[in-house]
Structure to design on (670 residues):
């Protein structure tokens, strides 16, 4: 098994006719993902490198059996595209787009919950299940197949850790980029639940950063409901309060959302927290070794 | 994007939230003219994006034109904890009967807007929470719904607001929730919210944060955005479309991706260094972006060494290397540059750098090694 995307994934890409959408969509197909359709309103009937393009996501579901939608449309249209995907009856929506207004995401978040659709992102690199499927922009060459699940707010930081795991001879069940926005469709807890239930995953690496309290909430959840070992990393110890550090959600508000508070909350629940990406990968290697 | 007090109050006024009569002024003469129009006594308030202005001498009452002139001269140009005062807000003095606290914030954890109200105003929320946690009444607003007037009255009653102003305070809460929803405000805080001696409910302060991602649908707010960057490097970076945050140290940092960049700052600090900035070159950075980034970093005179930490995913290391070579042709970097290139096309990138034979360029293989090296050279 793997989580969120896998051999059963039938992918439709909203924005497949755009530059980024076609580049990454076709890259995902080359990796082995079953790319069944693209969607661009007004361009139905066209094709992108042999992939049929439809006017609506609904048509791609009806005619091509799409069950997973990737959103690659510009920020101002992205919330509507996610809503369209939710209404079209796909199981999973993965939103890569950066810069969606947060109050739009608040509305979309609740819509996805109510209709039982799994939403990943926005402002995320997507999901990779090595050897099975890649949906998004994660460079698959840095990850091998294996038993470590990774859930992360950051793209490049994940590649860094994945590459260090690979060099240590370890691989991943799935890598899930949840995104760095203040409101994301799936939080650490949602993904931890999936990894806990996944046979292939033996250990979970959780990569967080300053802002919000998702890491603190995850710490509580891990203590109560996760039996598998979890190793964590938190970025942003040197970030000053009140400054947005790149990601819309990476901001310390007053005294809340600091890296230290997150580290303390995780360590209080016996989750080991690495001081650098390198040390985090080493902790994962050590923990798996000790378990074996 | 944080609004200044007067920008927040102008936004409030647009939505029918009561604020004192006020005028903006950027010169002493305009300030005195504004004070004359409003009448005396009036208040001269420094407009800077930082709290506790009163304690710093940035808020003064003027009883006549001479005092308005003297206060304006003193406050304009004043430095309040690193922020220079360029703008004044002149407003009518209010006779205060009671001070409350009201806010609407985006509760990220619950994914809902949260209304808060307390009868203890004029102090900061954390102090309030410490002194009397029960005095702060909190109520979530269901997404997509307005704040119901009856629910707002219930909040006011629960916060033990005086009976005669429950309706006024509740009406203000309803309007603030409307401001939040229609203007994409992720934080609205009024502290203090006052009751005047005439028992009028007025927003005496305004702290408003607008979601930067929403500016495409708020043209009026997008216009004030450019003036918010006080720091010369931050302003320069903004013009060049770079994600940059100025810090206090002397080691210039560039990484690709926000998470990796934050992590790089941490690792440099752990190695005993002091980062000068956060700069995320972004995904798929091209040579031009690297030239721009180096221009911004080197314009900070405090910088004595620079670290490039790149893990190429979509970003190609050969593009980064070309950017570094191009930049060293165009500008005098003048300080040691430590470069770590890993990931996509890293070998090509390393070859380009080796072939260019640049002075003062040091290559490192690992993130930790590069952090130690840059600290040593700084």
């Amino acid at each position: 098994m793997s989580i969120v995307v896998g051999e059963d994934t039938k992918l439709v890409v909203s924005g497949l006719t755009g530059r980024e959408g076609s580049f990454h969509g076709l890259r995902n197909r080359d990796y082995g993902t079953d790319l069944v359709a693209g969607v661009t309103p007004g361009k139905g009937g066209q094709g992108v490198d042999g992939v049929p393009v439809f006017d609506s996501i609904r048509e791609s579901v009806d005619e091509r059996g799409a069950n997973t939608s990737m959103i690659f449309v510009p920020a101002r249209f992205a919330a509507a595209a996610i809503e369209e995907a939710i209404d079209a009856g796909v199981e999973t929506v993965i939103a890569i787009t950066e810069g969606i207004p947060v109050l739009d995401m608040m509305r979309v978040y609740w819509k996805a919950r109510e209709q039982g659709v799994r939403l990943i992102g926005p402002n995320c690199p997507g999901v990779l299940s090595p050897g099975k499927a890649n949906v998004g922009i994660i460079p698959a060459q840095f990850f091998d197949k294996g038993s470590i699940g990774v859930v992360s707010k950051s793209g490049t930081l994940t590649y860094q850790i994945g590459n260090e795991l690979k060099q240590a001879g370890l691989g991943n069940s799935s890598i899930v980029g949840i995104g760095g926005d203040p409101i994301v469709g799936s939080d650490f807890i949602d993904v931890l639940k999936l990894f806990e239930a996944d046979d292939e995953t033996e250990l979970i690496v959780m990569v967080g950063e300053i802002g919000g309290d998702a890491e603190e909430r995850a710490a509580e959840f891990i203590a109560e409901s996760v039996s598998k070992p979890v190793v964590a990393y938190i970025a942003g110890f040197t970030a000053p309060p009140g400054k947005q550090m790149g990601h819309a959600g990476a901001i310390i508000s007053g005294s809340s959302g600091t890296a230290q508070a997150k580290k303390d909350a995780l360590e209080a629940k016996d989750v080991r927290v690495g001081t650098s990406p390198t040390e985090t990968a080493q902790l994962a290697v050590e923990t798996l070794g000790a378990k074996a | 994007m944080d609004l200044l007090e007067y920008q927040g109050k102008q936004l409030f006024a647009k939505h029918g939230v009561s604020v004192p009569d006020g005028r903006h002024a950027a010169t002493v003469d305009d300030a005195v003219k504004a004070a004359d129009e409003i009448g005396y006594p009036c208040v001269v308030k420094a407009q800077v994006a930082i709290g506790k202005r009163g304690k710093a001498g940035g808020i003064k009452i003027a009883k006549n034109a001479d005092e308005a002139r003297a206060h304006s001269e003193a406050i304009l140009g004043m430095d309040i904890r690193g922020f220079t005062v360029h703008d004044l807000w002149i407003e009518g003095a209010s006779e205060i009967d009671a001070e409350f606290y009201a806010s609407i914030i985006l509760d990220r954890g619950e994914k809902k807007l949260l209304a808060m109200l307390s009868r203890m105003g004029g102090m900061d929320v954390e102090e309030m929470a410490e002194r009397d946690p029960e005095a702060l009444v909190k109520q979530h607003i269901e997404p997509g719904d307005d704040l119901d007037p009856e629910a707002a009255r219930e909040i006011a009653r629960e916060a033990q607001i005086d009976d005669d102003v429950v309706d006024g305070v509740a009406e203000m809460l309803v309007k603030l929730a409307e401001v939040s929803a229609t203007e994409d405000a992720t934080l609205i805080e009024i502290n203090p919210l006052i009751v005047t001696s005439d028992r009028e409910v007025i927003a005496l302060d305004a702290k408003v944060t607008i979601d930067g991602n929403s500016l495409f649908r708020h043209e009026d707010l997008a216009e004030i955005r450019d003036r918010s960057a006080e720091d010369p490097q931050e302003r320069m970076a903004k013009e060049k479309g770079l994600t940059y945050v100025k810090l206090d140290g002397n080691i210039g940092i560039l990484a690709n991706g926000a998470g990796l960049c934050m992590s790089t700052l941490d690792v440099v600090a752990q190695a005993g260094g002091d980062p000068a900035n956060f700069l995320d070159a972004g995904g798929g950075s091209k040579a031009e972006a690297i030239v721009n980034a180096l221009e911004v970093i080197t314009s900070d005179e405090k910088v004595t060494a620079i670290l490039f930490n790149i893990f190429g995913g979509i970003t190609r290391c050969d593009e980064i290397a070309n950017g570094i070579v191009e930049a060293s042709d165009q500008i005098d970097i003048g300080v040691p540059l430590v470069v770590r290139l890993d990931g996509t096309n890293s070998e090509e990138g390393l070859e380009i750098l080796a072939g260019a034979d640049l002075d003062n360029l040091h290559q490192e293989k690992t993130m930790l090694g590069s952090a130690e090296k840059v600290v040593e050279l700084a």
Observations:
- The first strand of chain A starts at residue 10 and ends at 14.
